[in-house]
Design goal:
Keywords: Lipid biosynthesis, Lipid metabolism, Membrane, Oxidoreductase, Transmembrane, Transmembrane helix. This protein is of the alpha+beta class. It has two domains: 2-85, Ubiquitin-like (UB roll) (Roll), CATH 3.10.20; 88-298, no CATH class. The chain is 52% helix and 10% strand. It has nine helices and six strands, in the order E-E-H-E-H-E-E-H-H-H-E-H-H-H-H. A four-stranded mixed β-sheet has the order 2-1-4-3, with helices on one face. It has a two-stranded antiparallel ribbon with strand order 5-6. Helix 3 runs antiparallel to helix 5 and helix 7 (199-226) packs antiparallel against helix 8.
Length: 311
Protein backbone atom coordinates (compact mmCIF):
# COMPACT_ATOMS: atom_id res chain seq x y z
CA UNK A 1 0.00 0.00 0.00
CA UNK A 2 1.02 3.59 -0.60
CA UNK A 3 0.16 6.53 1.64
CA UNK A 4 -1.38 9.54 -0.13
CA UNK A 5 -1.63 12.94 1.53
CA UNK A 6 -4.22 15.27 -0.01
CA UNK A 7 -4.27 18.98 0.74
CA UNK A 8 -7.03 21.43 -0.23
CA UNK A 9 -6.08 24.51 -2.26
CA UNK A 10 -9.50 26.11 -1.94
CA UNK A 11 -12.49 26.02 0.36
CA UNK A 12 -14.41 22.78 -0.11
CA UNK A 13 -18.16 22.12 0.41
CA UNK A 14 -17.32 21.01 3.94
CA UNK A 15 -14.89 23.84 4.60
CA UNK A 16 -11.24 23.10 5.14
CA UNK A 17 -11.88 20.79 8.07
CA UNK A 18 -10.54 17.30 7.46
CA UNK A 19 -7.68 18.41 5.21
CA UNK A 20 -4.92 17.42 4.83
CA UNK A 21 -6.49 14.01 4.30
CA UNK A 22 -4.33 10.88 4.40
CA UNK A 23 -5.44 7.65 2.73
CA UNK A 24 -3.82 4.34 1.86
CA UNK A 25 -4.15 3.08 -1.70
CA UNK A 26 -2.74 0.26 -3.79
CA UNK A 27 0.22 0.95 -6.13
CA UNK A 28 -2.20 0.60 -9.07
CA UNK A 29 -4.60 3.25 -7.76
CA UNK A 30 -5.96 5.88 -10.14
CA UNK A 31 -7.04 9.47 -9.71
CA UNK A 32 -10.62 8.21 -9.53
CA UNK A 33 -9.63 6.12 -6.49
CA UNK A 34 -8.59 9.32 -4.74
CA UNK A 35 -11.75 11.15 -5.77
CA UNK A 36 -13.94 8.38 -4.40
CA UNK A 37 -11.98 8.38 -1.15
CA UNK A 38 -12.64 12.11 -0.77
CA UNK A 39 -16.36 11.58 -1.41
CA UNK A 40 -16.41 8.81 1.20
CA UNK A 41 -15.02 11.31 3.71
CA UNK A 42 -17.02 14.32 2.48
CA UNK A 43 -20.22 13.17 0.66
CA UNK A 44 -21.04 16.67 -0.62
CA UNK A 45 -17.66 16.94 -2.38
CA UNK A 46 -18.74 15.07 -5.53
CA UNK A 47 -16.09 13.63 -7.86
CA UNK A 48 -17.10 16.01 -10.66
CA UNK A 49 -16.27 19.00 -8.43
CA UNK A 50 -12.74 17.82 -7.72
CA UNK A 51 -9.65 18.97 -9.57
CA UNK A 52 -6.87 16.59 -8.54
CA UNK A 53 -3.27 17.62 -9.24
CA UNK A 54 0.20 16.59 -8.19
CA UNK A 55 1.33 18.97 -5.43
CA UNK A 56 2.92 22.03 -6.98
CA UNK A 57 1.58 21.33 -10.49
CA UNK A 58 -1.50 22.55 -12.39
CA UNK A 59 -2.43 19.68 -14.72
CA UNK A 60 -5.66 17.96 -13.71
CA UNK A 61 -5.36 14.19 -13.35
CA UNK A 62 -8.21 12.52 -15.25
CA UNK A 63 -9.95 9.57 -13.65
CA UNK A 64 -8.01 6.91 -15.58
CA UNK A 65 -4.57 8.30 -14.68
CA UNK A 66 -2.52 5.80 -12.68
CA UNK A 67 -0.89 7.62 -9.79
CA UNK A 68 2.29 5.57 -10.12
CA UNK A 69 2.78 6.97 -13.64
CA UNK A 70 2.93 10.57 -12.40
CA UNK A 71 4.28 10.11 -8.88
CA UNK A 72 6.79 7.29 -9.39
CA UNK A 73 7.65 4.55 -6.94
CA UNK A 74 7.64 6.63 -3.76
CA UNK A 75 6.08 5.19 -0.62
CA UNK A 76 4.33 8.49 0.10
CA UNK A 77 2.47 10.57 -2.48
CA UNK A 78 1.27 14.17 -2.20
CA UNK A 79 -1.72 15.48 -4.13
CA UNK A 80 -3.86 18.61 -4.09
CA UNK A 81 -7.58 19.00 -4.58
CA UNK A 82 -9.45 22.10 -5.69
CA UNK A 83 -13.20 22.57 -5.54
CA UNK A 84 -14.48 23.44 -9.02
CA UNK A 85 -17.88 24.41 -7.62
CA UNK A 86 -21.35 23.17 -8.62
CA UNK A 87 -21.29 21.34 -11.94
CA UNK A 88 -23.69 20.59 -14.78
CA UNK A 89 -23.27 18.03 -17.55
CA UNK A 90 -21.94 19.16 -20.92
CA UNK A 91 -24.89 17.48 -22.62
CA UNK A 92 -27.34 19.48 -20.52
CA UNK A 93 -25.57 22.75 -21.32
CA UNK A 94 -25.67 22.03 -25.04
CA UNK A 95 -29.34 21.04 -24.98
CA UNK A 96 -30.33 24.20 -23.10
CA UNK A 97 -28.29 26.63 -25.20
CA UNK A 98 -29.47 25.21 -28.52
CA UNK A 99 -33.14 25.10 -27.58
CA UNK A 100 -33.23 28.89 -27.19
CA UNK A 101 -33.26 29.76 -30.92
CA UNK A 102 -35.74 26.92 -31.55
CA UNK A 103 -38.20 28.75 -29.29
CA UNK A 104 -37.29 32.36 -30.07
CA UNK A 105 -37.35 32.23 -33.88
CA UNK A 106 -40.92 30.86 -34.15
CA UNK A 107 -42.09 33.58 -31.77
CA UNK A 108 -40.79 36.30 -34.08
CA UNK A 109 -41.71 34.49 -37.29
CA UNK A 110 -45.30 33.56 -36.44
CA UNK A 111 -46.22 36.59 -34.29
CA UNK A 112 -44.71 39.60 -36.09
CA UNK A 113 -47.53 41.95 -35.08
CA UNK A 114 -46.58 41.59 -31.43
CA UNK A 115 -42.97 42.67 -32.14
CA UNK A 116 -43.30 45.06 -35.06
CA UNK A 117 -46.78 46.44 -34.57
CA UNK A 118 -48.06 45.04 -37.86
CA UNK A 119 -48.34 41.80 -39.78
CA UNK A 120 -45.50 40.75 -42.06
CA UNK A 121 -46.04 38.94 -45.34
CA UNK A 122 -42.97 36.73 -45.30
CA UNK A 123 -40.73 36.82 -48.34
CA UNK A 124 -39.15 33.67 -49.77
CA UNK A 125 -35.87 34.84 -48.23
CA UNK A 126 -37.39 34.97 -44.75
CA UNK A 127 -38.86 31.51 -45.24
CA UNK A 128 -35.47 30.14 -46.27
CA UNK A 129 -33.69 31.70 -43.30
CA UNK A 130 -36.32 30.42 -40.89
CA UNK A 131 -35.90 26.91 -42.28
CA UNK A 132 -32.09 27.19 -42.12
CA UNK A 133 -32.08 28.28 -38.48
CA UNK A 134 -34.59 25.68 -37.31
CA UNK A 135 -32.86 22.83 -39.15
CA UNK A 136 -29.45 23.95 -37.87
CA UNK A 137 -30.44 23.89 -34.23
CA UNK A 138 -32.53 20.72 -34.51
CA UNK A 139 -29.39 19.14 -35.97
CA UNK A 140 -27.37 20.50 -33.04
CA UNK A 141 -29.79 19.00 -30.52
CA UNK A 142 -29.76 15.60 -32.25
CA UNK A 143 -25.96 15.63 -32.41
CA UNK A 144 -25.81 16.40 -28.71
CA UNK A 145 -27.96 13.38 -27.89
CA UNK A 146 -26.74 10.85 -30.44
CA UNK A 147 -23.32 11.90 -31.78
CA UNK A 148 -21.12 13.87 -29.38
CA UNK A 149 -18.90 12.09 -26.86
CA UNK A 150 -17.45 14.41 -24.27
CA UNK A 151 -13.95 14.32 -22.77
CA UNK A 152 -15.29 15.77 -19.52
CA UNK A 153 -18.61 14.83 -17.98
CA UNK A 154 -19.38 18.26 -16.51
CA UNK A 155 -18.55 21.95 -16.55
CA UNK A 156 -19.18 24.76 -14.01
CA UNK A 157 -22.90 25.48 -13.78
CA UNK A 158 -22.38 29.16 -14.64
CA UNK A 159 -21.38 28.10 -18.16
CA UNK A 160 -25.01 27.25 -18.86
CA UNK A 161 -25.83 30.93 -18.28
CA UNK A 162 -22.86 32.25 -20.28
CA UNK A 163 -23.31 29.91 -23.23
CA UNK A 164 -27.07 30.32 -23.32
CA UNK A 165 -26.69 34.10 -23.35
CA UNK A 166 -24.61 33.83 -26.53
CA UNK A 167 -27.09 31.59 -28.35
CA UNK A 168 -30.35 32.91 -26.94
CA UNK A 169 -29.51 36.58 -27.46
CA UNK A 170 -27.33 36.62 -30.60
CA UNK A 171 -28.49 33.72 -32.77
CA UNK A 172 -31.89 33.87 -31.10
CA UNK A 173 -33.36 37.29 -30.35
CA UNK A 174 -30.96 39.50 -32.32
CA UNK A 175 -31.01 37.44 -35.51
CA UNK A 176 -34.75 36.74 -35.37
CA UNK A 177 -35.71 40.35 -34.64
CA UNK A 178 -33.68 41.54 -37.59
CA UNK A 179 -34.44 39.06 -40.39
CA UNK A 180 -38.20 38.70 -39.79
CA UNK A 181 -38.92 42.43 -39.65
CA UNK A 182 -40.84 44.31 -42.38
CA UNK A 183 -37.61 45.35 -44.14
CA UNK A 184 -37.20 41.75 -45.35
CA UNK A 185 -40.89 41.14 -46.10
CA UNK A 186 -42.35 40.16 -49.49
CA UNK A 187 -43.51 43.74 -50.19
CA UNK A 188 -40.36 45.56 -49.08
CA UNK A 189 -38.28 47.55 -51.63
CA UNK A 190 -35.25 45.81 -50.09
CA UNK A 191 -36.60 42.54 -51.50
CA UNK A 192 -38.88 43.29 -54.46
CA UNK A 193 -37.04 43.27 -57.79
CA UNK A 194 -33.66 42.47 -56.19
CA UNK A 195 -31.44 39.41 -56.23
CA UNK A 196 -32.78 38.55 -52.74
CA UNK A 197 -36.05 37.65 -54.42
CA UNK A 198 -34.40 35.70 -57.24
CA UNK A 199 -35.28 32.01 -57.11
CA UNK A 200 -31.95 30.88 -58.58
CA UNK A 201 -30.02 32.97 -56.02
CA UNK A 202 -32.04 31.48 -53.17
CA UNK A 203 -31.52 27.93 -54.44
CA UNK A 204 -27.77 28.46 -54.77
CA UNK A 205 -27.66 29.83 -51.24
CA UNK A 206 -29.66 26.87 -49.97
CA UNK A 207 -27.29 24.49 -51.75
CA UNK A 208 -24.18 26.05 -50.22
CA UNK A 209 -25.80 26.08 -46.78
CA UNK A 210 -26.86 22.41 -47.06
CA UNK A 211 -23.35 21.43 -48.22
CA UNK A 212 -21.82 23.18 -45.20
CA UNK A 213 -24.26 21.66 -42.70
CA UNK A 214 -23.88 18.11 -44.04
CA UNK A 215 -20.10 18.49 -44.13
CA UNK A 216 -20.18 19.70 -40.54
CA UNK A 217 -22.17 16.61 -39.54
CA UNK A 218 -19.74 14.35 -41.39
CA UNK A 219 -16.77 15.71 -39.44
CA UNK A 220 -18.62 15.17 -36.14
CA UNK A 221 -19.26 11.55 -37.09
CA UNK A 222 -15.59 11.10 -38.00
CA UNK A 223 -14.47 12.34 -34.58
CA UNK A 224 -17.07 10.21 -32.82
CA UNK A 225 -15.71 7.08 -34.50
CA UNK A 226 -12.28 7.76 -32.96
CA UNK A 227 -13.57 7.54 -29.38
CA UNK A 228 -15.19 4.37 -28.02
CA UNK A 229 -18.23 4.95 -25.80
CA UNK A 230 -17.27 5.76 -22.21
CA UNK A 231 -13.66 6.49 -23.18
CA UNK A 232 -11.49 9.61 -23.10
CA UNK A 233 -9.24 8.19 -25.81
CA UNK A 234 -8.25 10.65 -28.54
CA UNK A 235 -6.93 9.88 -31.98
CA UNK A 236 -5.78 11.83 -35.02
CA UNK A 237 -8.73 12.38 -37.36
CA UNK A 238 -8.24 11.84 -41.08
CA UNK A 239 -10.48 11.95 -44.12
CA UNK A 240 -12.95 14.45 -45.52
CA UNK A 241 -12.17 17.96 -44.29
CA UNK A 242 -9.24 16.95 -42.10
CA UNK A 243 -6.54 17.02 -44.78
CA UNK A 244 -6.27 20.81 -44.50
CA UNK A 245 -7.47 21.76 -41.01
CA UNK A 246 -7.75 20.22 -37.58
CA UNK A 247 -11.31 21.41 -37.03
CA UNK A 248 -13.25 21.42 -40.31
CA UNK A 249 -16.48 21.38 -38.30
CA UNK A 250 -15.81 25.02 -37.35
CA UNK A 251 -14.85 25.88 -40.92
CA UNK A 252 -18.04 24.39 -42.36
CA UNK A 253 -20.17 26.10 -39.73
CA UNK A 254 -18.54 29.39 -40.67
CA UNK A 255 -19.57 28.78 -44.30
CA UNK A 256 -23.16 28.04 -43.25
CA UNK A 257 -23.58 31.26 -41.26
CA UNK A 258 -21.66 33.34 -43.82
CA UNK A 259 -24.12 32.09 -46.45
CA UNK A 260 -27.03 33.48 -44.41
CA UNK A 261 -25.16 36.79 -44.08
CA UNK A 262 -24.64 37.02 -47.86
CA UNK A 263 -28.21 36.05 -48.65
CA UNK A 264 -29.77 38.56 -46.27
CA UNK A 265 -27.33 41.39 -45.72
CA UNK A 266 -28.64 41.29 -42.16
CA UNK A 267 -26.75 43.24 -39.51
CA UNK A 268 -28.00 40.83 -36.86
CA UNK A 269 -26.74 37.82 -38.80
CA UNK A 270 -23.38 39.53 -39.35
CA UNK A 271 -22.91 40.37 -35.67
CA UNK A 272 -23.69 36.83 -34.58
CA UNK A 273 -21.45 35.33 -37.27
CA UNK A 274 -18.47 37.54 -36.39
CA UNK A 275 -18.77 36.72 -32.69
CA UNK A 276 -19.31 33.00 -33.37
CA UNK A 277 -16.37 32.73 -35.79
CA UNK A 278 -14.08 34.58 -33.38
CA UNK A 279 -15.02 32.18 -30.58
CA UNK A 280 -14.59 29.12 -32.80
CA UNK A 281 -11.17 30.42 -33.87
CA UNK A 282 -10.09 30.70 -30.23
CA UNK A 283 -11.25 27.12 -29.56
CA UNK A 284 -9.64 25.80 -32.75
CA UNK A 285 -6.24 27.40 -32.08
CA UNK A 286 -6.17 26.09 -28.52
CA UNK A 287 -7.22 22.57 -29.49
CA UNK A 288 -4.86 22.55 -32.48
CA UNK A 289 -1.93 23.28 -30.16
CA UNK A 290 -3.09 20.49 -27.84
CA UNK A 291 -3.21 18.06 -30.79
CA UNK A 292 0.36 18.92 -31.81
CA UNK A 293 1.58 18.67 -28.23
CA UNK A 294 -0.15 15.33 -27.61
CA UNK A 295 0.77 13.57 -30.86
CA UNK A 296 4.07 15.30 -31.65
CA UNK A 297 5.66 14.29 -34.96
CA UNK A 298 2.76 11.98 -35.75
CA UNK A 299 0.43 14.93 -36.23
CA UNK A 300 0.26 16.24 -39.84
CA UNK A 301 2.39 19.38 -40.09
CA UNK A 302 0.56 20.93 -43.04
CA UNK A 303 -2.74 21.33 -41.21
CA UNK A 304 -4.02 24.70 -40.10
CA UNK A 305 -6.36 25.02 -37.13
CA UNK A 306 -9.62 26.09 -38.75
CA UNK A 307 -9.38 27.90 -42.10
CA UNK A 308 -7.39 26.21 -44.90
CA UNK A 309 -4.01 27.88 -45.66
CA UNK A 310 -4.85 30.84 -43.38
CA UNK A 311 -5.59 30.06 -39.72
Amino acid sequence: MVQVTITAVSKTPSGRGGFPLTIDVSPNATALTVRKAIVAKFPKFKTTRQRITVKGEKKNLVDETKLSEVLGEKKEWELQVKDLGPQVSWRTVFLVEYVGPLIIHPLFYYFPKFWYGKDVQHSALQKYVFAFVMLHFVKRELETVFVHRFSNATMPWFNIVKNSTHYHLLSGALLAADVYRPKFSATSPYIVGTIRNNEKFLWIGAGVWAFAELSNLHTHLTVRALRPAGSRKRGIPYGYGFSLVSFPNYFFETIAWATICVMTGSVGASIFTVVAVAQMAIWAIKKHKNYKKEFGKEYPRNRKAMIPFIL
